[in-house]
């Protein structure tokens, strides 16, 4: 079972805070186990975990984001799979969603923040729209008096990234980035999850952290 599936099967022990009305950004939860060597000329090749994604245009777009981040970290792209010293395996996905209910006093206008998730520091992805993004666990508001009710669907998305040594298959990095949102559009979610994965890369082994990817104008 992959690291992402293990995490998806368990309730997170700590919740990401919901965005306030003035806050912007993409909140994610990132877990990493690593024994990455310092960059000393190692080269990498990126492959899809799902055979159906191999050679696909969508996968190629996300793999290019991983490639750019690894190069920025000091590693280099191998000219061929045979020449690579590191093999990077990338997986991503989103579930079918669950129905959530939020209530608040009728006189209250609610909380949350609009964020356009279709940008990463590497470019523009998809058409513009402004779905609400919430924290890892949505708070459930209740008041005994009059209140408004909002019913919506929450989707959980993930990016898995594993890095192993090509020579002997030794695992060097196992990471998962997850987020909950009101959109299931991978072209909006995956670039931000990759950005979260590489924030503070390779990270402290065995640590799960909450990372908010800032909007483009703040990067």
Secondary structure category: alpha+beta
Q: What gross morphology would you assign?
A: elongated
Percent helix, as a range, is: 10-25%
Q: Mean pLDDT, nearest integer?
A: 78
Q: Stretches where pLDDT falls below 50 for ≥5 residues?
A: 3-23, 108-120, 124-135, 137-143
Sheet with most strands? 8 strands, mixed
Give a topology summary.
Elements: H1 3-9, E1 26-34, E2 43-48, H2 57-73, E3 76-77, E4 86-94, E5 98-105, E6 119-120, E7 123-124, E8 147-165, E9 171-181, H3 186-197, E10 207-213
Parallel strand pairs: 2-3, 2-4
Antiparallel strand pairs: 1-9, 1-10, 4-8, 5-8, 6-7, 8-9
What does this structure look like?
The chain has 219 residues and is of the alpha+beta class. It has one domain (3-203): Double Stranded RNA Binding Domain (2-Layer Sandwich), CATH 3.30.160. Helices cover 16% and strands 34% of the residues. It has 3 helices and 10 strands; from the N terminus they run H-E-E-H-E-E-E-E-E-E-E-H-E. It has helices at residues 3-9, 57-73, 186-197; strands spanning 26-34, 43-48, 76-77, 86-94, 98-105, 119-120, 123-124, 147-165, 171-181, 207-213. Strands 1, 2, 3, 4, 5, 8, 9 and 10 form an 8-stranded mixed sheet that branches. Strands 6-7 form a two-stranded antiparallel sheet. Helix 2 (57-73) links the parallel strand 2 (43-48) and strand 3 (76-77). Helix 2 (57-73) runs parallel beside helix 3. It is elongated and about 65 Å long. The protein starts with a helix and ends in a 6-residue tail after the last strand.
């Amino acid at each position: 079972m992959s690291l992402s599936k293990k995490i998806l099967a368990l309730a997170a022990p700590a919740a990401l805070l919901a965005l306030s009305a003035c806050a912007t950004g993409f909140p994610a939860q990132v877990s990493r186990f690593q024994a990455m060597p310092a960059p000393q000329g190692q080269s990498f090749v990126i492959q899809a975990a799902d055979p159906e994604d191999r050679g696909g245009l969508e996968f190629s777009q996300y793999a290019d984001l991983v490639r750019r981040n690894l190069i920025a970290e000091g590693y280099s792209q191998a000219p061929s799979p045979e020449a690579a010293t590191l093999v990077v395996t990338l997986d991503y996905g989103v579930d079918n969603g669950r129905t959530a209910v939020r209530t608040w006093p009728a006189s209250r206008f609610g909380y949350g923040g609009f964020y356009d998730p279709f940008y990463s520091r590497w470019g523009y992805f998809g058409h513009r729209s402004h779905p609400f993004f919430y924290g890892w666990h949505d708070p459930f508001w209740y008041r005994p008096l009059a209140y408004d009710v909002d019913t919506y669907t929450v989707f959980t998305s993930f990016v898995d990234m594993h890095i192993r040594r090509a020579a002997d298959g030794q695992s060097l990095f196992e990471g998962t980035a997850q987020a909950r949102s009101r959109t299931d559009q991978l072209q909006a979610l995956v670039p931000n999850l990759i950005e979260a994965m590489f924030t503070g890369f390779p990270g402290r082994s065995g640590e799960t952290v909450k990372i908010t990817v800032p909007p483009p104008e703040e990067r």
